[in-house]
Design a protein that fits this description.
There is one protein chain. This protein is of the alpha+beta class. About 50% of the residues lie in helices and about 20% in strands. It contains four helices and three strands, in the order H-H-E-E-E-H-H. A three-stranded antiparallel beta sheet has the order 1-2-3. Strand 2 and strand 3 form a beta hairpin. The chain is elongated and about 55 Å long.
């Protein structure tokens, strides 16, 4: 019997787990300016770039549900991490 396909919510949860278990994330966890927030119903992720005067500046990442279903959570997590790394590097050069 074939396994039931995973729901979008399950795939999104796996995506967040992949991000939080990534090697880069393990290193960034020590950095007060490295954080993510996620909104499961909206399938949105955002990465913290910096905190200025108590205000947080976030980099948004919209998760494409069709791509999540097609390519899987690991591919989206890799894409998020790559783009978040670039955003953090760009922020570091402009501060």
């Amino acid at each position: 019997m074939a396994a039931q396909p995973r729901t979008d919510d399950e795939l999104f949860r796996e995506l967040v787990e992949d991000i939080l278990s990534a090697d880069d994330w393990s290193v960034w966890r020590q950095d007060a300016n490295a954080a993510i927030e996620w909104t499961a119903p909206a399938f949105k992720l955002k990465g913290l770039l910096r905190i200025v005067d108590g205000e947080r500046e976030w980099w948004p990442y919209q998760v494409d549900r069709k791509r999540l279903r097609k390519e899987g959570p690991h591919a989206i997590a890799s894409d998020f991490m790559q783009q978040y790394t670039q955003a953090r590097e760009h922020w570091g050069k402009t501060k």
